Amino acid sequence: MRALIVDDELYARKALALKLQKYCPEVEVLDLIDSAATAITAIHVNSPDLLFLDIEMPGEGGFAMLETLGAFDCNIVFVTAFEQYALRAIKHSALDYLLKPVNPQDLQAAVAKAQRLLEPRPAKKREHEYLPIRKLVLPTEQGFEFVRIMDIIRCRAEGNYTRLLLKNAEDLVVSRNLGEIESLIANDNFYRIHMSHLINLVFVKKYLRGRGGEVEMIDGSRVQVSSRRRDAFLSFIVGP
Q: Is the pTM of this model over 0.85?
């Protein structure tokens, strides 16, 4: 599970991160955030599974931040030193409510709840039911773009930006470097074949030999494979 920790106190952020590392190794902490404003951007960009959120923070507090965000798909665990907000937390559909200092057993129980909610539930498929579709929420100069991962043919580095080439023959420039994009979608059949190129293996049409070689994608584009990555790439797609 991928998580964000939002708390204005540095010690509290680090203490919770250390407890998660020790007692809940299944949780990957993406970032430690000190304000609601920064958290809102991080949530849109990272789409975390779990949000550990303090309530009383300077400026915009935890409850106000959730009202600013509106509807979003994430399990919320409030972490606070105050008991009196528990009822209000329930009204915000909180998964759990932990009091500082956080008890390791309570933390494990909260994470277990989140894990159960994220596990796919076996059920008969009906005509009106749809499979969940993974999307990226990516910043652009105009705002945010919602992109279905399954629609991305390849990604090309352009300095601190990345150009996404999509199935509909459109392309999109986003304000994230290629390494950041790779970290978000590497487990979705994507492979870095060159310092500047990340491809969706689903859309590879053929491999053409050469010093490093090239791959031809389903849209007819050809992308160079770096000589340094060629052997690992070929081993990955066709076996040793």
A: no
